[in-house]
Every structure is written in structure tokens, then in C-alpha cells.
Design brief:
mainly alpha, 3 helices
Length: 71
């Protein structure tokens, strides 16, 4: 399922995404720059995800608070 989600962002099917993942995994085995770049990218994606999750939690909290206060 994750490969289908990634593929949907780039108009690629899951086989293309799987192939790309395998190639990147190969590169990681012998290219330290790829390892470093992937770590930087992973950290940035996680940071953005955490911010969005927090923002969604705050929005949900205030929606619920407004509902409670209206009652």
C-alpha cells in the first residue's frame, strides 16, 4: 500500500516505485553520500509530519472545545 501511495504522487505504478526503492537500497550499500542524503530527507519528512500531526491535534482540540462551550 505505501508504494501505491508514493506512486500516486508521481503518476507511477507500484512496480516502478518498488524498482526505485531497490535501486536506492543498492546505492546505499556503496555510496555514503546517498546514506547521508537519505538521512537528511528522512529527518525533514518526519519533522514535517510531526508538525502536521500536532497542528491537526490542536485543531481537533479546539473544535471539541467549541462544541462543549456551545452546549
Amino acid at each position: 500500500v505505501p508504494t501505491m501511495i508514493v506512486g500516486s504522487f508521481s503518476n507511477r505504478d507500484h512496480a516502478t516505485v518498488l524498482h526505485s526503492c531497490k535501486k536506492i537500497d543498492e546505492w546505499r550499500s556503496y555510496d555514503k553520500d546517498v546514506v547521508n542524503d537519505l538521512q537528511i530527507l528522512t529527518d525533514k519528512v518526519l519533522k514535517i509530519s510531526k508538525r502536521r500531526m500536532f497542528a491537526n491535534l490542536v485543531k481537533e482540540f479546539f473544535r471539541n472545545l467549541i462544541k462543549i462551550l456551545k452546549v
